[in-house]
């Protein structure tokens, strides 16, 4: 948890100290309770894990299923309204803003929630639904509804989410010439 808090301190310009991050950031507290609930669920204490998860959701406003798999240094900023489903997988160094849902589209056997790869950024109120993969270092814009896979290092926005085309770089050639002629008065 200290590693996560240090990561948040580096990524959030509003954070003033490690103590502030540990005591006041709901994302840190939600991940703390999630880690305990995940341990309990892994050891088949599903009822206790579920109760702990519900307590954490009530206190923080962040609902994380104990069966989800979450990596290191995940930053849930503000957090209110974040929902992470049971078969969701979130790799290391992911940033998730408030109101994000990692949800299912239909009840099926096996994996039914998104897989978010390392370093991805998920904007506020984005909805990632189904067995999709969000590529490494990708960005999902605020309010986007993502129903298809997102490639690595890609930005998607809108409803339904679509890739933002990168504009070609504009190159302007500027030539500076110096006037070497001298005039006599």
UniProtKB/TrEMBL annotation:
<dbReference type="InterPro" id="IPR005881">
    <property type="entry name" value="Ser_O-AcTrfase"/>
</dbReference>
<dbReference type="InterPro" id="IPR018357">
    <property type="entry name" value="Hexapep_transf_CS"/>
</dbReference>
<keyword id="KW-0028">Amino-acid biosynthesis</keyword>
<dbReference type="InterPro" id="IPR053376">
    <property type="entry name" value="Serine_acetyltransferase"/>
</dbReference>
<protein>
    <recommendedName>
        <fullName>Serine acetyltransferase</fullName>
        <ecNumber>2.3.1.30</ecNumber>
    </recommendedName>
</protein>
<keyword id="KW-0012">Acyltransferase</keyword>
<keyword id="KW-0677">Repeat</keyword>
<dbReference type="InterPro" id="IPR045304">
    <property type="entry name" value="LbH_SAT"/>
</dbReference>
<dbReference type="InterPro" id="IPR011004">
    <property type="entry name" value="Trimer_LpxA-like_sf"/>
</dbReference>
<keyword id="KW-0808">Transferase</keyword>
<comment type="pathway">
    <text>Amino-acid biosynthesis; L-cysteine biosynthesis; L-cysteine from L-serine: step 1/2.</text>
</comment>
<dbReference type="InterPro" id="IPR042122">
    <property type="entry name" value="Ser_AcTrfase_N_sf"/>
</dbReference>
<comment type="similarity">
    <text>Belongs to the transferase hexapeptide repeat family.</text>
</comment>
